[in-house]
Amino acid sequence: MRIAALLVALIIAFNPISARADDVATAQGLIRAQEQAFARDDAAAAYSHAAPAIKEIFPAPGAFMSMVQSGYAPVYRHKSFEFGDSKSEGSWIAQRVHIIDANGEAWEALYTLEQQADGSYKITGCSLLKAGQAA
Predict the structure, then answer these.
(1) pTM greater than 0.90 (yes/no)
(2) Which of 7, 22, 10 is nearest to 93 (CA)?
(3) Which of 25, 94, 97, 132 is the most exposed place for a label (fewest CB within 10 A)?
(4) CA–CA separation, 47 vs 34, rounded Å?
(5) What is the spatial distance between Cα 109 and Cα 81, in angstroms, rounded to a whole number?
(6) CB pairs under 8 A, 24+ apart, for 32-36?
């Protein structure tokens, strides 16, 4: 009986960790889907991954895509886009991405995502710095 209780306690204790790992995998999938939509110039698909607050600022897919093209060129077009460290806390996920832009320069992007009321995650922001620069 003690062994069964111990097993139940261990399952409960480790369940949040696997849930967080699943959430991080989901977040990475969303970031990857948006990155691929940018590569196809599919504004509607890229916009679909944006959080409501982003959609308030950019109320149409075309406006959103223009902002990404002009302000986030390394995210929009690049040679390499690889996931780095992630952190999950509550309903938020922060995901680092290592990017090599079209000119071969290295960048660090920090994506933030928030779980929505329906349980899905949406991208709430992306901060972009040249690799080696202080935040």
Answers:
(1) no
(2) 22
(3) 132
(4) 8
(5) 10
(6) 34/123, 35/75, 35/81
Give the pLDDT confidence of 36-62 residue by residue, as tens digits: 999 999 999 999 999 999 999 999 999
CA distance 65 to 106: 22
**Spatial separation of the C-alpha atoms in residues 46 and 42, rounded to whole Å:** 6
Q: Give the contacts of 59 (CB within 8 A, at least 6 positions apart).
A: none
pLDDT value at residue 2: 47
Burial class (CB in 10 A: 0-12, 13-18, 19+), 63: middle
**pLDDT tens digits, one per residue of 116-133:** 999 999 999 999 999 877
Instruction: Provide the 3-class DSSP secondary structure of residue 129.
Output: strand
For 67, the 3-state DSSP assignment is helix
CB 64 within 8 A of CB 43: yes
Can you tell me the distance from the alpha carbon of 5 to that of 20, in angstroms, rounded to the nearest whole number?
Answer: 24
Under the banding of pLDDT at 50, 70 and 90, the label for residue 83 is very high
